[in-house]
Write a structure and sequence with these properties.
Order of helices and strands: EHEEHHE
Distance between the termini: 22 Å
Largest sheet: 4 strands, antiparallel
Shape: globular
Number of helices: 3
Oligomer: single chain
Number of domains: 1
Radius of gyration: 15 Å
CATH architecture: 2-Layer Sandwich
Strand content: 15-25%
Length: 120
């Protein structure tokens, strides 16, 4: 069965352009190098559309689907993701650990039904 999840990060103020470019590159690298990552979409809120509640500035929302939990663990522990965090982690809200790590929330999902009409 697949391993779907959502995640949220926060870009620190003033880092929006650099973080967005880095995230685009990360998604492209994941697509090219991690075949067990079936879906890897990175989103920011659209403040021109009505959302309730209003999303916070700097919010990044990930929508990811992996072949299985092992594929997810290979992603977050693998060279693409760990190098990204090392090189760009300071652009995002960090936790209180030493050394600090990107603060992220994650929701592991269970699919009950659905489809993908075409690649996005």
């Amino acid at each position: 069965m697949y391993y779907p999840l959502t995640g949220k990060w926060t870009i620190l103020p003033g880092n929006e352009v650099k973080a967005t470019e880095a995230l685009k590159k990360l998604a492209q690298d994941v697509q090219a190098n991690e075949p067990e990552t079936l879906l890897y979409m990175v989103h920011i809120p659209n403040f021109n559309a009505k959302s309730l509640p209003t999303p916070p500035e700097g919010e990044i929302i990930f929508w990811e689907v992996y072949e299985d939990e092992n594929a997810f663990l290979k992603h977050i522990n693998g060279p693409l993701f760990t190098t990204f965090v090392k090189n760009y982690g300071e652009l995002f809200l960090s936790d209180f650990n030493t050394p600090p790590k990107i603060y992220m929330t994650a929701e592991i999902l269970t699919t009950i039904e659905g489809f993908s009409r075409k690649a996005l």
